[in-house]
Structures are given as C-alpha cells and as structure tokens.
Amino acid sequence: NSHTPCTHWLKHKMCTSSCCILLLVCLLQTEAQDCSQPCACPADPPLCPLGTSLVLDDCGCCKVCARQLGEPCSLLEPCDHHKELYCDYALLTQEGQTCDLGGVIYRSGESFQPSCKHHCVCMNGEIGCVPMCASDIRLPSPDCPYPHRIQIPGKCCEEWVCGETPQDHHYQSVVSPRDNCIVQTTEWSECSATCGMAISSRITNDNQRCQLERQTRICMVRPCNSQQEKEIKVSLFPFSYKLIYFQFYLYNTQSQLFRLYN
Q1: By three-state DSSP, how is residue 26 classified?
Q2: Whole-model pTM?
Q3: Which single residue of 8, 98, 119, 146 has CA 20 to 30 Å from 137?
C-alpha cells in the first residue's frame, strides 16, 4: 500500500490548482490499490492510545485507530479528522529528509519505537517522541504511606509499590534506577501546629523528572485542649457533625482527605 504522512488540513487549503489535480490523481490511484480487497475486520475493534480517535477507514470497511500528525497514512489507515488532519497523497512523489538514530535510518513520516518507553516519528529529518509510560505522582496515604516506583521484571514501565519502611525515607543520597539521577529526600518537617490536625512537608527529587518538589501530608502531635472539648459538649447548641475537607495540589495531582468532628 502507498503511504504518505498525515498533514494539517489548513495546508491543504493553500495548495495550487496543479497541486490539487495531483492530489486527486494520487487519491484515485491509491483508492484503486487499497480498496480492491474484500473487508476482513477483526471481531473486536482495536484499543487506541489515549487521545487517538477510533475511526472508519476511507474504504468504509473497518474501524481503525486514526493516524496522527507526521505518521504514515493510507485509505486503510486514515488520519484523525477530529484534529483536522488529512492524508496528503500529493506527497507521494516527494521525498523528505531521512532520520538517523543510532545508525538506523528512518524515512520521513515513518513511526518507530526505539524502546518500549517511547514512540517516535521521523518528520523531514527531525525526530519527535512521546513517552509511553505514565508520569503520575502518588502521594502518601493511610493505605500506602511510602509509595515508590520499582522496575518489575518482564514489564516495561515502572510500577508503584508500598513496601518500604519509614527508615528508608530519611535523608537519602543513593544512585537511582533512573539514569543520571541521584535521589535526595529530606526528613518530614515538624507539624505546623502543636495540637490538632496540621501539615508536615519534605523536599525530594524522587520522581520521573528527577526534579526537586515539595510534598505535604496530614499530621497531628496530640488532640487540642480536652477541657475545651468538654465545654463544647455541654453547651446549649445541639449536637452536630461537621465535615472538614483538606485539599492538596501537586503537579495537577489532587489528594483529598476528610475527618469527622463533633
């Protein structure tokens, strides 16, 4: 099958009349080549990556994952029209610059995976890559007070586990499994209040980007004045519950805890 890279639709609107004629000729030739076979679709539609549309191919045959900007496309592998992309068949006669990665040559518009953690595309001599592994941050919680990532044999991406002890999270300066990253983590600070619910924090670079960040958690040294609590209980106000929310924000990750008081 003939393949060309996906192109933004705005560029198509700017083409000359001769360019549009060439596009039509290539489109008819490609349709005759790609749509000549009978439909043979899988029983279940494919699972597309996050942000990729599931579309019907241009032969009206099967549901496929739409091709993205710079990726090779055809009538059986159409571009993502939701992002105003189209398959520029006029580029069939044009050769873009190739890409060289580690001695391997890739054609312009060719997509490849140099490792299981990255998906790359050669675009006229330039290589663009996107990560395949999640880069989320997990905050400490009662169920997982010391979360950290580990590499599991047989799996590509690191996964979260909760098996470390508090002693392992005192100030560290050890070689991380991540390349060229020395993990440094301070101890948790003292609670911001001497009684009742308060905040404790620490500084660490134990994350995918190896960048220093501030993490916070709920702490309580002791309950506040018990005599004051007794006075509240014998007051004339009716007994009631009050729901209090504590919210934290860290790199678009929100952790929400709540405690019931009377």
Answers
A1: helix
A2: 0.30
A3: 119
Cα separation, 142 vs 202, whole angstroms: 17
Q: Is 29 helix (H, G, I), strand (E, B) or coil?
A: helix
Tell me phi and psi for residue 89, to 5 degrees.
Answer: -70, -15
Rounded distance between C-alpha atoms, residue 2 and residue 56, angstroms? 18
Contacts of 241 (CB under 8 A, 6+ apart): 260, 261, 262
**In the 8-state DSSP scheme, what is residue 79?**
B
Give the three-state DSSP class for 232. Answer: helix
CA proximity to 146, closest of 121, 167, 163:
163
- Write out the two tokens for 160: 């979260």
The answer for residues whose C-beta is within 8 angstroms of residue 187's C-beta and 6 or more apart is 170, 171, 202
CB atoms within 10 A of CB 66: 22
Contact 41, 109 (CB under 8 A): no
Burial class (CB in 10 A: 0-12, 13-18, 19+), 197: middle
Q: What is the pLDDT of residues 181-228, one digit of tens each?
A: 778 888 888 888 788 777 778 888 888 888 888 787 777 778 877 555
86-134 pLDDT per residue, tens: 776 655 444 577 888 888 888 887 888 888 888 888 877 777 777 888 7
CB 240 within 8 A of CB 232: no
Measured distance CA(17)–CA(8) in Å, rounded = 18
Q: Which region holds residue 43: left if phi is over 0, alpha if psi is between -120 and 50, else beta?
A: alpha
Diameter of the chain measured on Cα atoms: 90
144/109 Cα distance (integer angstroms): 44
Composition of the chain by helix, strand, coil, percent to 5: 15, 35, 50
